[in-house]
Amino acid sequence: MIRLFAALCAVAALTLQPARAQGLIRDAEIEYALAQVAQPILQQAGLPGSVRIYIIDNDRMNAFVGDARAIFIHSGLLLRLESADQLQAVIAHEAAHIANGHLTRRPAAARSAATAAKLGLILSAAAAAAGGGRAGLGVAAGTASAAQRSLFAHTRAEEASADQSSLRYMAAAGVNPQAAREVLELFRGQEMLSVGRQDPYAQTHPLTRDRIRAVEGFAAAVTPRTTDRSAVDYWYARATGKLSAFIRAPSWTLRQVGRSGDEVSVLRRAIAEHRKPDLNRALSAIDSLIAARPNDPYFHELRGQFLLEAGQAGAAVGSYRRAADLAPRSALIRAGLGRAMLAADQTGEALRVLESARASDPYDPNLLRDLATAHARSGQNGMASVATAERYAVLGRLADARIHAERASGILPRGSSGWLRAQDILAVAPRQ
After folding, report:
1. CA 131 to CA 270: how far, in whole Å?
2. For position 103, what pLDDT does the model report?
3. String of DSSP letters for 372-432
4. CATH superfamily for domain 3-221
5. What is the DSSP letter of 19?
6. How far apart are CA 252 and CA 272, in angstroms?
7. What pLDDT is recorded for position 208?
């Protein structure tokens, strides 16, 4: 289920709309697809399995590292890239900043990471680079201080080092290094603009002529290793196709795909029909994809989203359950299943499923909202307050988080797991 965490706003599972508040886009299929695209690069960087790729809902072009475990890419940049190679070039450059230790050398980065670690919020530092005076990420736990902003402003020496490393990663992974030059071309001329008109990438990644010439020279001199690119290209197309269909107007998407019958076009058509909304046509399209790939969990999950948002919660549970069976390790899919169960008044089972999802991804605001609802319906008011406190903490509303954590502390047995979770909130939420 594709969802948007808008800044300081607790909302139900959302499809994306053309006018959107800046936030973090979470979607099981897109995150899996990006992991498949990133894996060859991260393997060469010595970071396999330790770094996740997140998408920020922002139409400006930017990419940055949140900490040693997270790379953030603006949706505006992702949708302007033209190939999987170009996306891998972006990922390779950001991975090089991690592998080369450009974050851990800075005291400001260390202080930010220590604060985030108290709640496990690997995303907390991201607000500092979310872009100018616009609202920070809904998942941010702190303010965008000058020290945090400096975390993302790389020096020219760091940029040169990251370029050299990233180009080696690309060549070793079978990615054409020319893609790095193509990405830099997207930003050429940015430094000639006033700061207010520059895309954030130009402010945090200095673009000098010497840097561009060095990348061009390396790309021209290196022949990448020959590899099978079909899987990477496939998952790139699915990620960008789905993201585009949820962000752009349904009428635009339908004009673009026309009568095309390839898989990604049908996926985009299904999403566009859902957003019109036309449930019958949306289900017809997604069912054709399921018929071709019956064991693809993400098609079943999307079918569940269509049904749930059309008010057919009982039928949605079946689709989500099938998706969860096919992808048992996906916390986002289990969260969707729990949400559908709540809507279908299956509170007891919903609570078990949501608790399981929280154990894997405890910083999902929508999941925490649903978990609080399930606890409240079950008469577990103390645990409902804990989940609500955690949700507010993840959204950066620390004063509200403290209120609910104090309420939970007064209800739950001292030393219990819920009580201890409330103490974690109180340790970082300031008194008013």
Report:
1. 32
2. 63
3. HHHHHHTT-HHHHHHHHHHHHHHTT-HHHHHHHHHHHHHHSPTTSHHHHHHHHHHHHSPP-
4. Metalloproteases ("zincins"), catalytic domain (3.30.2010.10)
5. S
6. 9
7. 57
pLDDT for the residue 153: 52
Average pLDDT, consecutive stretches of 10 residues, N- to C-terminus, the chain (432 residues): 39 29 78 96 90 88 81 92 96 90 56 39 35 29 34 64 88 92 77 48 58 80 86 97 96 95 97 97 98 98 97 98 97 96 98 96 89 98 96 86 96 95 87 74
Residues 6+ apart with CB under 8 A from 413: 419
Intervals of CATH 3.30.2010.10 along the chain: 3-221
Output the DSSP codes for 184-231: HHHHTTGGGS-GGGS-HHHHHS---HHHHHHHHHHHHH--PPP---HH
124, two tokens: 């907390």
Determine the Cα–Cα distance for residues 236 and 395; give it in Å rounded to an integer.
Answer: 29
User: How many CB atoms are located within 10 Å of the residue 262 CB?
Assistant: 11
Helix (H, G, I), strand (E, B) or coil at 6: strand
What pLDDT score does 190 carry? Answer: 53
pLDDT at 175 (0 to 100): 94
Burial class of residue 130 (count of CB atoms within 10 Å of its CB; 0-12, 13-18, 19+)? buried
DSSP string for residues in 154-194: --HHHHHHHHHHHHHHHHHTT--THHHHHHHHHHTTGGGS-
Element (H, E) at 253: helix 250-257
In a 13 Å sphere around the CA of 223, the CA atoms on its Cβ side amount to 1
The encoded tokens of residue 358 equal 């929280």
Q: Which two tokens stand for residue 76?
A: 């505006």
Dist CA 391 CA 412 (whole Å) = 18
pLDDT tens string 186-215: 877 555 444 455 455 555 555 656 777 888
